[in-house]
Amino acid sequence: MVGIKVVFLVLSVLCFIFSTPLFTQSWMDAVVFAGGGGFLGELEVGARFPEPYSCLSYQGNARFALFLKSDGCEGKVDDWFVVPKRDAKPKYPNGYYEFQFNSELFIVEPAEFSKVRIYKE
Asked: What pTM does this model have?
């Protein structure tokens, strides 16, 4: 009987740990850094990406898409990107966005209060 209680307690603790945002963040960092990229930062609506990608700005997201604006990238002015929400894949949790810009792959994680976390793979 004690063995069953111990197993239940261990499973409960593991479920709690794996459901926390801290674990998800660490998992995402490990996946991205394994590919040679990294965490670029957290952006609010209207904020520009960090250098050297500052010509891109985050304009918000909807239920099924992420909206980015390109201002002065590659000589172009005011181009809009609509990035559809990706389907769940084994490499990333469901709900993440992925897009390519200048032949570099970016992963966008929805965060709280309309913010997003940007990773470069």
From this structure: 0.64
